[in-house]
Design brief:
Blueprint lengths: L2 E12 L3 E13 L2 E4 L7 E4 L3 E13 L5 E2 L1
Antiparallel strand pairs: 1-2, 2-5, 3-4, 5-6
């Protein structure tokens, strides 16, 4: 069976004019499952071993008055 372990950490900041978020993540898969598709045969689920996914996400929004916001 496919299993995964997920780690995530982040920081958030906000005041009346600025909002900022930064996060980092790490996902580790074991017994990663994929669909094997071959012409003329039904799809088959097979193990593709292990996989890792890691990255950083960030967003920023700024308010410059009642009618203007950039994000």
């Amino acid at each position: 069976a496919e299993t995964l372990t997920n780690y995530e950490i982040g920081v958030k900041f906000a005041n009346e004019r600025l909002t900022a978020n930064v996060g980092a993540y790490l996902i580790k898969y074991s017994d990663f499952q994929v669909a094997l598709v071959r012409p003329g045969l039904p799809p088959q689920t097979v193990s593709a071993g292990s996989a890792t996914n890691k990255g950083v996400e960030a967003d920023l929004a700024a308010r410059f008055g009642d009618n203007l916001q950039l994000f």
